[in-house]
User: Fold these one by one.
Assistant:
Number 1:
Amino acid sequence: MKNERCDIVIVGAGAVGCAIAYLLSKAGLQVTILEQDSIGSGSSAHATGLFTLLGSDFSDGPSFEMALASHSICKTMVPALEHETSIETLFQHKQAIRLALDQEDKDMIQSMGTWQSRYLPIRWLSATQCHQMEPRITKKVIGGMLEPDALQIDSYRLTLALAKASEQNGATIKFRRATKIKHHKKKVTGIEVPNGEIECESIILATGSWSNLFSDQIKYPIFVEPLKGERLILKMNGKPLPLFLGSPKGGHIITRKDGLWSIGSTGGRDDDDQSGKPSSAINYSPSEEARLDLLQRAVMVMPCLENAQVVQQLAGSRPATPDRKPLIGSIPTWEGLYLATGHTARGVHLSFITAKMIHDFILGSGNQQLFNYEAFSPARFNASRKLDYLEDSPIFEG
Ligand SMILES: Cc1cc2nc3c(=O)[nH]c(=O)nc-3n(C[C@H](O)[C@H](O)[C@H](O)COP(=O)(O)OP(=O)(O)OC[C@H]3O[C@@H](n4cnc5c(N)ncnc54)[C@H](O)[C@@H]3O)c2cc1C
């Protein structure tokens, strides 16, 4: 490969890297995406693509404001993307219920509801009201919080659409591993790939679970660790669900737009828990334990799923940070080096706002920031990098 030049190199063609490439190429910048494997082959191909706001991933303040902003951008960007690329992303809007199966769930959901209701018109439903909306929910349910407008998309198709639209805007995708950041006194000058180098002004590391492999090289700790997650795709006779279901102990149950069902996802107490392991040791093997656990949890919420047929088991790796929030922004003491990673269980949902934030950091926001971007600064952690929340997260709702 001859040495080449562009404005921005984005390392990683997952949902996050491709969303950034889409916005920056649309703004007229010369963008190159480097991908060591194939488009969406990391976490993004394995995600449910569910955008609910009520789960445990978002907290009061900038975290929730960011999630809301991404939700809103997604609703206008996805139809435009589908139009530009002719890729059908299986995008759908539905109401969602976060179900309480016991008093502990109810207390937690209602306590979060006290602040969530400042942002969203949510409403508590009795068990009878839950059954009126979906009679197949277990009789053991004791109520649920109704979210008026949740979204779901096929995350792999979304990533492909973002990549295709970026190419249509003039971006280049190269299937090469980024090996070394080139710089002069910590000002980015380019990036090395096997057999060549690309000169550029800025580099964005959208490298998901592999991000910490750059820590030594840049002498800055990137607090991202791989966190395995598995989910199942099912075929079920009977009507599709009219809404998305989630519950703290049961995870999600949804019917996709193609008629298949998705249940999941396993979380921090996997037997194959990868926290603390280097990103180079990512485990993508589906496990029998996860399959049985997921089926058992789903049947606990919807007993009729006992008759469903498993058609696919997906095992991926979430790029997890100690506080479950992403790392977005420039790396202190460097010029032209940015992180857009660590989105943990919400990277597909947050890919839209991440792209907007990186766009604003590089090109200026033009208007006021929608929320405090500083809350996601890579500089927010001190020496601790323990993923404390794993102990309470046997299941993730996405
Ligand atoms: C089972 C499961 C369910 C999930 N459900 C949801 C959900 O419902 N909603 C949601 O929002 N999120 C969900 N997630 C989380 C979501 O998948 C991630 O947060 C998101 O995909 C992260 O996107 P990314 O682009 O940062 O990372 P990735 O998709 O992992 O992309 C990173 C890319 O960088 C490439 N790369 C790394 N290093 C290099 C290098 N040196 N050179 C070149 N390329 C490199 C990798 O090959 C990879 O393709 C789920 C995850 C799992 C596992």
Note: The chain has eight helices and 19 strands.
Number 2:
Amino acid sequence: MRIAYPAALALAAFGTPALAADELLERGRYLSQIMDCGGCHTEGALIGQPDPKLDLAGSTIGFEVPGYGYVYPPNLTSDPQTGLGQWSVEDIQRAVTTGERPDGRILVVMPWPHYSHLTPEDATALASYINSLPPTPHKVPPFTEHTQPQPAPVLTVK
Ligand code: HEC
């Protein structure tokens, strides 16, 4: 017993990091499902026809926010050109919990005021999972100010 107890502890400590990374991503996947990220960020989801090939790869149907502009749920996958490939885990976590993008603009429509209640552990798990999504190239229109022509179909937010 004198030997077995510290040996078990050492084994547990040694085995922890790899397990923790798996568990973090699994927790993040679970959170992204129950928080319904795909309900907006998957092509077709906003009209009840989600395209499983474009899961979390953005929506070309967006929202009109009167007096502000047109927003389209961006591609959250790690594609460097059309997705979040240039964003760090911290950038994603800040956007989801405070609405602030790396360029300082505050996101609209995106329900970050609700997501601001995530525990720091869950916010990190969610952001790590989003950051781990394989790249799915899919271009959606950028934020467009209301003074510009509407780039693609929208639902209206009152
Ligand atoms: C009700 C629809 C909706 C839901 C649900 C939603 N989002 Fe969003 N999200 C948006 C819209 C619309 C934008 C773009 C807003 C803007 O440009 O002002 C956005 C922007 C973002 C951005 C910033 C990306 C960028 O390129 O600017 C991130 C990151 C993000 N969402 C992650 C998530 C995650 C993670 C979830 C689930 C936990 C989620 N969103 C759920 C609608 C939604």
Note: The first helix runs from residue 4 to 34.
